[in-house]
Amino acid sequence: MDGARGTVTAVSSNGEYAFTKPNRDSITLLPGLGVAGDVHAGVTVKHRSRVAQDPTQPNLRQVHLIHGELFGEVAEKGFEVAPGQLGENVTTAGIDLLGLPTGTLLHIGAEAVVEVTGLRNPCLQIEAFQQGLLKQVVGRDADGAIVRKAGIMSVVRTGGEIRPGDTITAEFPEGPHRPLERV
After folding, report:
1. How many distinct structural domains can be found in the chain?
2. Which residue ranges does the record assign to the MOSC domain (predicted)?
């Protein structure tokens, strides 16, 4: 392990297409599929916009993680967002999700392992959820490059049950690290 650690603060899933996901006492990750009973679980892509482009592409967005610190950041701008409301499955604290390299393995709880595939590309549904919020989770850095802050996406490598309070430990990939890109 490489020492980057955090904690699960909330877990969420939804069996129906809806922007938000209700919080749960626990969720079960299924290898190669995602969250048991979640509408986005599957080997091939399940997000509607991506299905419309190519329904056979692999599902690199099986589990969506978001850093709970984002909620405090947007609260300073007048937005109230709670865990699960941005459609994430796992809300975290204490780990810099956006700074992880592509391919990082996140060991969550006693058994579950997810592999980080990239950044969530925030969509217009965020703006429909709360007007002006999209601008808070997508911006530009000093060099004009797009900065996406709405969490990261991953695939399940090892299944298991996860719940609030579980520890998250990052294991970085070998070789030169690649920064996260939109998936």
Report:
1. 1
2. 21-171
